[in-house]
Amino acid sequence: MDRKGKEVWVGLFVLAGIVVVCAMVLHFGNLRERFAKMYEFNVRFQNVGQIARSAPVIMSGVHVGKVRDITLERREGTVLLTLAVWEGIQIRNDAEFTIKQAGLLGDLQVLVIPKSNDAPLIQPGNTVEGRNPTDIQDTLEEAARIVTTIKTAADNLESATRKLDRQVMNEQTLAELRSAISNVNVVSSNASYLVGDLRGLVEKTSGGIDGTLANLNQFSTNLSLASSKALGIVEANEADIRSAVQNIKTSSEHLNTMLANVESGKGTIGKLLTDESFHQELKRLIVNLRRFGVLKYKDKPLPGEETEPPAPPQSKVRGKPGGL
User: How far is CA 101 from the centre of its chain?
Assistant: First the structure.
């Protein structure tokens, strides 16, 4: 009897050890998905960005399922993702489905963003529409186009400034302008002296009035020629001045329009700069790089972002007691 009792206790101990080992394998080996009950529905995208099967489905930061299958609809040109979500996780049909990376360097995953609390629930087999993910390559290409446009505007502005400086503010034009002004000053001085001389001549004699009037007429002619010369310089460069001013105005308006679109969040770059999630992901990348370095980098959430996933239904393993 003592030997038989010991064998029973040893058998129970071994059975309990087996149960504990199985529970640890199911928990740490992420094998619970094979046994937990899940329901499936479809999400249609135009582009899934090379997401892989078994990619996680995340809702409010919690792992709630995985990508079961990926189907290419050739006739419509769309991609159908079949998502498997654990039973008990309720997702409404107005929720937003999108695809993003887990951090800046992580794998792609499906994000579920709940909207309202009164919309109908998604039933097994339903198909809903998803929002296409932002392709980092398209973002870089658009950024390159914007940089090229800004560079072109800057080049046009610099070219207009150089043209204005070369054609209007060159040494020859300035010399001619100084000469014209000097001639005007000389003519004005001569006219003043002439008026004084004329008054003296009128007072002394009336015989020299005709000669004085002739001199006055000559000085007036010189003044008119000098003024015409200055006006000709301005008219000769009028088209270039207007063209340079118009180029400066056009470049400034183009640059202001692009900066206004970026500040208002239009376009891919604008959305990227105003996206709070991008700021959080960049912050997480910098913090993880400081904590772990480049070679041992780990994508860990920031303090306060860690959320434990809901506990799935536990599979019960019943053992039959028996002697060995």
Answer: 17
Q: Which amino acid type is present at position 309? A: P
**Cβ neighbours of residue 172 closer than 8 Å, sequence gap 6 or more:** none
- Cα(126)–Cα(128) distance, integer angstroms: 7
Q: Of 71, 73, 43, 78, nearest to 57 (Cα)?
A: 43
pLDDT in tens, the chain (324 residues): 567 777 778 788 888 888 888 777 666 555 555 667 899 999 999 888 888 888 999 998 899 999 999 998 888 889 999 999 998 899 998 999 999 888 767 788 999 999 988 999 999 999 999 988 766 656 667 777 787 888 788 778 777 777 766 666 666 777 777 788 878 877 777 777 777 777 776 666 655 566 667 777 888 888 888 777 777 776 777 777 777 778 888 877 877 887 777 777 666 666 666 767 777 777 777 887 777 776 666 677 766 665 555 555 554 444 444 443
Q: Are 297 and 289 in contact (CB under 8 A)?
A: yes
- The Cα 61–Cα 11 span in angstroms is 44
DSSP 116: -
CA angle 149, 150, 156 (to 5 degrees): 90
Q: How far apart are CA 207 and CA 247, in angstroms?
A: 62
- The first and second tokens of residue 94, run together, are 């107005």
pTM, two decimal places: 0.39
- The full set of domain ranges for the chain reads 37-133, 139-263
Smallest CA-to-CA distance from 275 within 134, 109, 95, 105 is with 134
Closest to 81 measured CA to CA, from 59, 103, 52, 39: 52
- Distance in angstroms (rounded) separating the CA atoms of residues 90 and 66: 15
Is the dihedral angle over the CA atoms 24, 28, 29, 34 positive or is it negative?
A: positive
